[in-house]
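Expect sequence, tokenised fold; for instance:
***
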Amino acid sequence: MPREGPEIGYSVIKIEGVKRTFVVGDVKVEALRGDDLIVRAGEFIAIMGRSGSGKSTLMKIMGCLDRPTSGHYFLEGVDVAGLKESDLAAVRSERLGFVFQSFNLLARAHQRHRECRPTALLRGLGAVGPHRANRAGA
């Protein structure tokens, strides 16, 4: 994957004819039916639709958490279908970010630990010096 940010107008995400079918018992459920999408560098998009329209399925594919049944997904020019699981993990940790609707991922953690967790993660990545992490209580 490229390490530099792409120039404005470059296709960061390109989805061509992506289908995703789930089999539930004897029933095939088509969550995505040959969808296309292009997201260019510098663009902000919103994926909207009624319940059951395939938004979450599309987001999981775009986030490299699931693979399409057919079609192609290119992330920064690379066909994601050809990547090994270890490469997908690297993409998820280095190239993608997620914002969740619910806060239940850390629901059982004490408030102070929830507040300090990002600083502790950054310290582990070397992005925050130990003095700042210690001041935050991480």
About this structure: Residues 120 and 134 are 9 Å apart (CA to CA). The first helix runs from residue 55 to 62.
